Amino acid sequence: MNRLYERCHTALLRAYPASMRSRFETGMRYAFSQDLDHARARGAAAVLRFCVTTMFTTLWFAMGARASRAHGNATNSGDPGMRRFITIDWRDAVRSLRATPLVTTVAVLSLALGIGANTALFSILNSLTLKSLPVRDPQQLALLKGGWTNPVWEQIRARDRDLAAGAFAWSSEEFDLSSGGQRDVIDGMWASGRMFDVLGVRAILGRTLSESDDVRGGGKDGPVAVISYGFWQRRYGGEASALGKTITIQRVPITIVGITGPDFFGPIVGRTFDIAIPIGVEPLMRGAESWLDGRSTWWLDIMIRLRPGQTPLQASEALRGWQPAIRQATMPDFRPQDQADYLQDPLTFESAASGRSWLRTRYERPLKTILIVVGLVLLIACANIANLLLARAVARRHELSVRLALGASRFRLARQLFAESVLLSSLGAVCGLLFARWGSRLLVRQLATPDNAVYLDLSLDWRVLGFTIAVAGVTAILFGLAPAFGISGVAPHEAIKEQSRGVVSDRRLGLRNGLVVLQIALSLTLVVAAGLFARTFLSLNGRSGGFDRDRVLIVNVDVQQSAAGPKERLDLYERLAESAAAVPGAAHAAVSFTSPLAGSGWNTDVVVPDNSTLEGRKRWTWVNAVSPGWFATYGVGLASGRDFDRRDRPGAPLVAVVNRTFAQRFLGEGDPIGREFSTQEPRTTIRYVVVGLVEDAVYRSLRSEMTPTMYIPFAQWDQPSPIVSIGVRAERGAPTNLVRDVADALGRTDPKAVFSFRSLSDQVAGTLAQERLGANLSTFFGALALLLAALGLYGVTSYGINRRRAEIGIRMALGAKGSDVVRLVLGRVALLVAMGIAAGAAMSLWASQFVEALLYGLEPRDPSTFIAAALVLAAVGLLAGGFPAWRATRIDPSTVLREG
Q1: Helix, strand, or coil (residue 564)
Q2: Helix runs in 543-612, H state only
Q3: Whether residue 613 sits in one domain with residue 568
């Protein structure tokens, strides 16, 4: 870093005059002495203000020096003349923009929307993918790829000091503060004792967790916890007395020993935490069903801090030296073939400077796609502003010609026009930053679902500010060059002639027409993208899924703290379902391991003949344990056979109901009722008899094809989970109307049971958050692109009509009708629209291949979408040109001839 500083310092100081060196040295020292990943927005802004100031000032010094020398005003150093020219440029730019408030307002608002939308999306991507964790030296962190069991963590913990500078494990989970009834959840985190120490996170009050806290059942101080700054403010009002207080988590009293700072949100990007509890306390909450000794319970993430100079590859190689011992000591209850894979699967570390994030995996590609869409909208806005500035420059031809006659150079006038563009872009960037602050938070709310709250650090940092400045600079160049280059067409004697006739050269009109064609082409691309994303969302949202989503209320029940033990749970679940079914307005109620699209799943392998071609996942089937009436509750059609009933009890022959896809894949042709099949479990093979065939229903994802699914009787489930789902079907109306009565009924049946409510339609909607975001944003910006293109077409058409007023007046004086004038005007409009559609179609065909993975139910080059987009754009174009065409028919020939 010191060497880089010296090289930058030596090379760049030579490029700047002596008057700027003190500012430059201050900025350089600050920039190279700070960790920019952790710099406060104010400090980063100072650095970036200096950088952009020097960039633009360098440009102006170069341009000003040329102008000064041209007029003989440069001194030996050149500084006084340059300063005077720069001051005049900015003063004239401000006056010029104030003289045309409408044009200035439209341009600034267009830029604010375009730059702000780009900055808002970039700030989210920056938080997801670029920004480092707010911890000490985040570049030294490495994540062990995959999810892990506690036995694996204990093996690594025993070797962590030989492996790296430190290691820790954690797992996110929602903790319940209620003592029964409806859940009162907070965002929690299981954390190993050294987590805060390895991350370098200190408490602002009290202390963080230690290794002595992370023992089974709690340390010498009992169960303790560290809370976040946000939770401290919300629940305790920021009072220091919160330290030492007891908070009851899932009926376990836990003492608060520390409070973290406001910047730390945990090691997962996209999620924050309210409370961190040692992993060793977990048995107190889950009791006999603790996960600490489970070799098949994958719930922990593991991260290490590398030693100085150590790489993730070196840490991986060191860990693989112990891999055989670690794997053998933690062998899960797998089948023999899966045990071999477990032993051979290499343990691998990857860089974790930016933490871990499920949100990053899910939304990174859609957000990057939308960022490109918004970038195209900004290009359209730039073309529109360029058209506005060209029209404005035409109106100023007389002024500019007078300046030329008085001795100003064309370069001097071009520089003044470019100064106005830079000022417009700067104003747009400032307003865009304000818009981005609001827009980014709105987008984050769109990413969240009822089951997954989203937290992102959207504070301004040097990357976001640098991106905004870069975008502002590029836009200033894009729309500022057209009027600046247009100065070459200005001549004093031509301007005098134009004052009398209002005639201008065709070259500027040709440039404006070209910009309109570009706008139409880009707009078509965006409308096609909006159509593809919107149709994808509508296809998925309209897919039935094989169940009735509108009349089902889902009750997620947790009985971990109930008096009923694992053996009594089947009876408890049956009583809970019966009490829910007895509620007035409820048609059916049934209990199941999971509900459609809940995100959880259970799968197993079906035993197939040795000569079968089915391999790997083709042998998989999804499994759900359901009680009698479940199919009627969810509206899944029974094709043949029977539903489960009281005959299907523990000790009775094992039976199953299968869907059509299961029967076709594993049972072949013919009636499946009475057929037998087997599933391969870790230690045994289980045989079932098919008693029913049901229609296909989606299990985990609306995007996936129908998968083989088998249903087993809930009463024959030998290891019932403490967390299950009860579906309640409403006789009529919205199922959420049953919430209060169902809650009262369940509370009376078991006061210690904890439950939460959600309609099945909301659960389905939650799985489509990504598609909804893409459809909404692409539709909004597609409509905005249409509006900008229409405004650009309207402007160039009106400009062309004003230019041809004399010609149109003469035509009308010679007998032309209004319809003839309309055809004349709209013919030019139709040509521009056709050229734009042709160019946009080629662009869309090329770009559509990059969004194929985000689509569902249609091809990226779907002809109907392209045709519909072209028709919409053509209609908008004709409407935009129709009003100026109508105005042209109102021209009075006598008035035009008198003007001549």
Answers
A1: coil
A2: 569-581
A3: yes
Query: Encoding tokens for residue 528?
Result: 């096609």
Residue 595 has a pLDDT of 96
Per DSSP bridges, beta strands 301-305 and 141-144 are: antiparallel
Query: Cβ distance 854 to 774 under 8 Å?
Result: yes
What are the residues whose beta carbons fall under 8 Å from the beta carbon of 846, sequence distance 6 or more? none
Rounded Cα distance, 31 and 41, in Å: 13
Cα Dmax for the chain: 107
Neighbours of 849 (CB within 10 A): 9
Q: What is the pLDDT of residues 255-300, one digit of tens each?
A: 999 999 999 999 999 999 999 999 999 999 988 889 999 999 999 9
Same domain? For 208 and 322 the reply is yes
CA gyration radius for the chain?
Answer: 35
Instruction: Determine, yes or no, domain membership for 212.
Output: yes
Which residue range forms the structural domain that includes residue 231?
138-353
467 and 575 share one domain: no
Residue 743's alpha-carbon distances to 578, 729, 755, in angstroms, are: 13, 15, 8
Domain co-membership, 584 together with 480: no
- Please write down the HEC assignment for all residues of 634-652: HCCCEEEECCCCCCCCCCC
Q: Residue 109 and residue 282: Cα distance in Å, rounded?
A: 55
Q: Between 13 and 411, name the one with better pLDDT.
A: 411
Q: Which of 705, 720, 752 finishes a domain?
A: 752
Pairing of the two strands 252-260 and 203-206:
antiparallel
CA distance 24 to 105: 34
pTM for the full predicted model: 0.81
Angle at 395 between CA 391 and CA 397, to 5 degrees: 110
Measured distance CA(403)–CA(392) in Å, rounded: 16
785 and 697 share one domain: no
Q: Does some domain include residue 23?
A: no
Domain count, the chain: 4
Domain boundary among 353, 371, 400: 353
Residues 427 and 497 occupy one common structural domain: yes
Q: What are phi and psi of 550, to 5 degrees?
A: -90, -15
Segment 145-172, tens digit of pLDDT: 999 999 999 999 999 989 999 999 999 9
Residue among 283, 284, 259, 287 nearest 273 (CA):
259
Residue 245 carries which side chain, given as an amino acid letter? K
Is residue 163 domain-shared with residue 71, that is, in the same domain? no
Q: Are 874 and 790 in contact (CB under 8 A)?
A: no
From 698, 701, 755, 764, select the one nearest 724 (Cα to Cα): 755
Residue 568 carries which side chain, given as an amino acid letter? Answer: E
Say if residue 135 is exposed, middle or buried (CB neighbours under 10 Å; 0-12, 13-18, 19+).
buried
| In a shared domain, residues 340 and 427 | no
Which residues are within 8 A (CB) of 788 and not within 5 positions of it... i.e. 6 or more apart?
A: 110, 377, 380, 381, 384, 519, 523
* Any domain includes 419: yes
> What pLDDT score does 401 carry?
74
3-state class (DSSP) for residue 6: helix
